[in-house]
Amino acid sequence: MSPPQIPSEQWAQVVEKTGSLVYKRIPVQKPGPDEVLINVKYSGVCHTDLHAMMGDWPLATKLPLVGGHEGAGVVVAKGELVSDDLNIGDYAGIKWLNGSCLACSFCRQSDEPLCGKALLSGYTVDGSFQEYAIAKAAHVARIPKGTNLEEIAPVLCAGITVYKGLKESGVRPGQWVAIVGAGGGLGSMALQYAKAMGLRTVAIDGGDDKAAHCKSLGASAYVDFLTSKDIVADVKAATPEGEGPHAVLLLAVSEKPFQQATEYVRARGAVVCIGLPANAFLKAPVFDTVIRMIQIKGSYVGNRQDTAEALDFYARGLIKVPFKTVGLSELSNVYGLMKEGKIVGRYVVDCSR
Ligand code: 8ID
Ligand code: ZN
Ligand code: ZN
């Protein structure tokens, strides 16, 4: 078999200055010794990509920046140190964690997202909104041959992140979890991972489209934050004996629900923060947190094992990713809809157009 033809230039969406995108031709990079070059076929669009473009967070991005971290494609070149478990022609995924040192105490204990030297796709290194992207071979998601790359793309961040968040929450089968921002990208995945893990869900989001969507993905109840007169009471009422959910996954891109969650979580329950609204703070009454023994914690993407497990749920047909596909050239339209909270599920971009 002749090696794949790799062009010297390609189309990419480039953030040249914070707040705007340029669709242009840029050079194709060459992989370093421990890296692979992936011909990205499809990439999911995560709200994190919008935060990165807007400079929302207290962590600088590289500039100019190619965003994107849900990239599914085919390995077309590899460095000389990459072992035989990843070869040219294999399917592979670019995820948020592009690389880590593999040697620090976090990496040694499989907490590689916490590595101080972590490389972040579409943030500190160029990501998947281009036709050819680079990642450290050790961290690339292994995708089985024959997988639908368009469908699996959103699993590479949204799926892994919510699966990890559910594990971090400590909930057990049969228990209840509130999913805040349930109609968005992460939320749509969370409803399905929760169902597959034997959990009951209360979906919280805004509007009738999202209500229908959440119900179709298996939510037991839906609370509309735009119309509810008392969100705390409505969430509690949706759970057995009105005691509230055993855990809350906060996926919304607004601060308000981060303040509300400790009010409706069940005593001894866990509030898991995952969404990253700009300039947001957590506030909870100390008295209630103590006497109701509430846990408040963060959860950040997943490690390589979480990745393999999250992909396996998909491979077993348990996760149907609700997505719409547009060309890479239309990325700024997707960001427009995302800013308005109008996206139901996930958008995927086809990197060949
Ligand atoms: O590892 C991590 N912690 C991680 C990984 C990936 C993404 C964190 N994130 C972060 C993103 O950076 C973003 O801040 O999770 C957040 C959600 O990402 P997303 O799911 O990609 O965003 P989306 O598709 O826009 O969905 C957000 C949903 O929240 C709803 C919106 O209607 C939308 O459906 N929402 C909002 I805004 N305010 C709400 C509220 N008050 C709300 N839902 C309920 N109550
Ligand atoms: Zn993401
Ligand atoms: Zn490390």
TrEMBL record:
Naming one, the record's GO cellular component terms include: cytoplasm
What Gene3D superfamilies would the database entry show? Medium-chain alcohol dehydrogenases, catalytic domain (3.90.180.10), NAD(P)-binding Rossmann-like Domain (3.40.50.720)
Task: Specify the Enoyl reductase (ER) domain's residue ranges.
Answer: 19-349
Q: So which cofactors does this thing need?
A: Zn(2+)
Q: Which PROSITE patterns match?
A: ADH_ZINC
Q: Which GO terms describe its molecular function?
A: alcohol dehydrogenase (NAD+) activity; zinc ion binding
* Top EC category: oxidoreductase
- What InterPro entries does the record tag this protein with? ADH-like_C (IPR013149), ADH-like_N (IPR013154), ADH_Zn_CS (IPR002328), ER (IPR020843), GroES-like_sf (IPR011032), NAD(P)-bd_dom_sf (IPR036291)
Q: Which Pfam families match?
A: ADH_N (PF08240), ADH_zinc_N (PF00107)
Its recorded name reads alcohol dehydrogenase
